[in-house]
Design a protein that fits this description.
Number of strands: 6
Distance between the termini: 71 Å
Largest sheet: 6 strands, mixed
Number of helices: 13
Helix content: 40-55%
Shape: elongated
Structural class: alpha+beta
Strand content: 5-15%
Radius of gyration: 25 Å
Length: about 350
Amino acid sequence: MHRNDVTFPARLLSWYDRVRRDLPWRVPAGRSGAPHPYHVLVSELMLQQTQVAIVVPYFHRFLARFPTLADLAAADEQDVLRLWQGLGYYSRARNLHRAAKRVVAEHGGHVPAGMEQLLDLPGVGRYTAGAVASIAFGVQAPILDGNVTRVLCRLDGITDDPRDREVQTRLWTRAEEILPPIRVGDFNSALMELGATVCTPRSPKCLLCPVATACVAQARGIQEDIPPPKKAKPTPLERRVVLCVARGDHWLIEQRPATGRWAGMWQFVTRPEPAGADPVPPPVPVGPATRIGRVEHQLTHRRYTFDVTCCRSTDDSPAAIAGPHAWVTLEGLKDYPLPKPHVKVASLLRTRALEQAPPS
DNA sequence: AACTCGGGGCT
DNA sequence: AGCCCAGAGTT
């Protein structure tokens, strides 16, 4: 794209006004004004590394439960995690919760408009600060996410790997110098919308692109080769044993540590697969265990298999169990944030309960 | 600069 | 079966 192409923002904004998606954190089509800063903050945290279509139902549920930033700040972290269950990257939920508390304590309950104050909030980096500042407050701040990175690389015909720091620096500069004097929030949103719907990773729809005439990659026919593919790393397999312990119609669950994967969330008793033939020592005295199935779970950098067994506690009032734990019914699990694989384990238990006690 | 952190959609 | 997604925090 040429440096002094003054028609670029106009063409992009005109396209955006015509085809933009009506998303719940945006001002409805046809109405003017900026969206609510709290709504923008929540949506931007949810959207980090997550596609729009996944976020929409979570956003509705979250706003229904926490209508204002003050509601969120006053909530229990476990409730916030429960609303986030299934969305992944749970540190985002904890950071958003902490950010809300900080906004109440330090900014009178109003999301700050300045980049410096936004960057000081947990979970808010350069992208998110720029998005909130520009979209909610009209501040002249650039953004650079996965979509904008791809759009700018193709517009400028940059064939280098955009993950390199040097390229990143160039792209941030570029994202800043193309900002128009007005409607910066819509302009930034339009750049991302273009990347998400037209300038897609594979099979970009250049015939529908409002700025195709400004695109170096399109002119050279190399848009499919930008950005260069990433070299995939092998994903190691982790084996786990899940011991579902029942006492009456209650099941034993334990809370995960406050750091690491699925931090602070709850699970059925889970241990690494024993190296030898020795079974996993149960946390309470139990009767014979029955294997009820296997749950497989794929993450970005890891694969899991959970071998699920089921047994009964043989002690009516078992002695102290190490670490935070609870006995809950299958219905009561809804009050606890569970990692996805343990939601699958719960489904196994429900299926099995139905098979054992068919309706008469 | 490299790792960690979830889960799902799309090709 | 890969690759990516409105990235941020830690090491």
